[in-house]
Amino acid sequence: MFLDGLDELDQKIIQLLIENARMSYSEIGERTGISRVAVKARIRTLEERGVIEEYTTIINPQKISGAVSCYFEIETTPECLSQVIKLLKDNETITQIYRVTGKDKLHVHAVASSSEEMEDLILHVIDPLPGVVSSSCNMILSRIKDIKGLRL
């Protein structure tokens, strides 16, 4: 499975952190049967190995008045792909960029504070991208299921 290479205790610690990344070392220790110090050492090792990448707060843009969230599918010519990726990475409105298989080369997510800001992104960033063969935009109406990272 996904966690091959991790012992049972590390797997349990990761499962607890997925449920609540703010869980204290003491509580994790109580639930796994090891000391707080041992939990801290194991988590530090998992972080150093890159198994745990980050702890973050996820903001739901749909709960913020006026926020607009869209997905773009962008097909580019091969010679312009790296330039397009750089231009998109440099834009603060764009939150995620995925290189994908199939006709569309990039799957891009953007969150704007208003429909005017999203339109500005389309007019001044997306439309003028070099080497674009095709692009489409889909506005997100509601979030039904949204899992971050690996689920065990």
This entry's quaternary arrangement is: single chain
Morphology: elongated
How do the strands of the widest beta sheet line up side by side? 2-3-1-4
Sheet of most strands: 4 strands, antiparallel
List low-pLDDT spans: none
Question: What's the pLDDT, averaged over the residues?
Answer: 89
Helix content: 25-40%
Order of helices and strands: HHHEHEEHE
Number of helices: 5
Query: Termini, distance in Å?
Result: 9 Å
Describe, in plain words, how this protein is organized in 3D:
By secondary structure, the protein is of the alpha+beta class. It is 36% helix and 20% strand. It is built from five helices and four strands, in the order αααβαββαβ. The chain has helices at 8-19, 25-32, 36-48, 81-89, 115-126, and strands at 68-76, 94-99, 106-112, 132-139. Strands 2-3-1-4 form a four-stranded antiparallel beta sheet. The mean pLDDT is 89.
